[in-house]
Design brief:
Elements: H1 2-10, E1 17-21, H2 25-28, E2 36-40, H3 42-45, H4 52-65, E3 70-74, H5 80-88, E4 91-100, H6 111-116, E5 119-121, H7 129-141, E6 176-180, H8 192-204, E7 208-211, H9 216-226, E8 232-234, H10 240-248, E9 252-256, H11 259-267, E10 271-275, H12 280-283, E11 297-301, H13 308-320
Length: 331
Amino acid sequence: MPAVQDIRQAFPEAQIDWVVERGFAPLVRRCAGVNRVIECELRRWRKSPLSAPTRLAWRAFKTELQHDSYDAVIDLQGLTKSALITWLARRTLHGQRYGLANQTEGSSFEAPARWVADVAIKLPPHSHAVARSRLLCAQALGYVMPNHQTFGLLAHLDNPLKTTQSDGFKALPKGVVALVHGTSRADKEWPLAHWHALGQRLHANGYAVALPHGSDAEQRMAEAIAAPLTNAVVWPRLALDQLTDALAACAGVIGVDSGLSHIAVALDVPHVQLYNFDTAWRTGPVSGAGSTPGQRQRSVFARPTPEVDQVWQAWQAVAAAPLVSAPEKTA
């Protein structure tokens, strides 16, 4: 998303189309400056590549992808599947394919991505995941990457989540803090007892707690976290665009290294991100949209896991940080 905003700044008239897995399409449609969202389902199609439904869906995807010809086709992932899409996309007479020339630390990279690219761009190996995409686009299109980072993620604040009010759940003076506990890896999780202790501190300091979830296992964990807390609610399972609205309306977010935590960064709500591994330099918050770097967004790293006191101190700091300029939160 910051790469899209950089391109918009350098070339205000540019048409930017984005190919994305269908499950993430609702989120990409909230990104300011994206003209066309082209959905694919490569993860699902490769499970039954020769089936009639897959062949039909693949043909429809190719038709949509090749509807326009592009002056630049940029592969931000450096994977075989993204190289395939880059190769399939139509180009104008002088259009070129751009991609990564090398792997960056902690990120996947597969050789076909370099073979397909007309121009392979070498990037610093020790690169933040967001900076990597921004640098690649800047070098491909010939502009200087701006110092300020914005995401352009739009949220609808005029339609708040009605389920924040439930039996036994009362509005508290400082609002709602979402606790993002779910992650794709068990070794990134935070202990249940720590969530309980944090929730109790939040309540004692005037905050209510909301718990999102994206699977049955995450829902069970959300219910376990909420059970002993005085003022906590488990949200229903929401699509990514609905979650974006719900998180944007919160007083803040505290969460493990996960997709929802990264949405909180993009929205520039006060946010603390928890790390059991020393990888925050690569995926953690750098600066939010419209804020001074590091003020409203912080990561906390400790092994084997951050303690409640560390997280609480970080939360107090980000909750007190001023907003320098209002981010894009309405569409």
